[in-house]
Amino acid sequence: MSDRDTPGRGRTPEPREIEPAAPESFGLTQVWWGDGKGKTTATLGMAFRAAGHGFRVHVLQFMKGGADSVEDVRGEYNAIAALPGLSYENLGHYGWHAMNDGTEERDHEAEARAGFERAKELVEAADAADLTTPFDLDGDPDDGVHMLVLDEILYAADRGLVDSGAVLELIEDKPESLELVLSGSHSRPGYLMEAADLVTNVRKEKHPIDAGQRARKGTEY
């Protein structure tokens, strides 16, 4: 067996101190959609992985919540705060649009629009930065990031809170070296199929929610 077939030449990898670094092959657009649990979980896992290599990552959430069993502080927020190189902000309304969860629909609309304007600012900032160089791990995302995760933006587009055509334009306008990750929506975002490099349909085979299980701390939030 050649060395190419054995990553690390068979050695077990060990954790190293996180130092600022720049990715060599970022620049794709990823889309994660579907009716199954795990879209945010998968994209955040990838964000943690990238940050672990010293790349600068930012997560912008458009909305999250929607059940009275979900607390207003999520486990991922605490974990992100403890990890250098990874930051987040939630500019969408905390709750689900059109789900009768006690949140105001007009607030969803206004804040989703504000979230999309923020996404454009972050893409423009990345375009103005040199993405081939490392960034300060605790630096402002407005100074540039290597990976930008737009969590639930597809859900917002599916609900008409942001324009799907504008989402497509955002992809087309992104800098070549920015890894852009979009998640959300149970509906297939056909308008993105040509523009995206990776599209994953997270399908539900079985979910305990169908049997009455509420969202659980540590798994769903």
Automatic annotation (TrEMBL):
Bias (Basic and acidic residues): 1-19
GO biological process: cobalamin biosynthetic process
One of the record's GO molecular function terms: corrinoid adenosyltransferase activity
Any single Pfam family the record assigns to this protein: CobA_CobO_BtuR
Name of the protein: Cob(I)yrinic acid a,c-diamide adenosyltransferase
Disordered: annotated span: 1-25
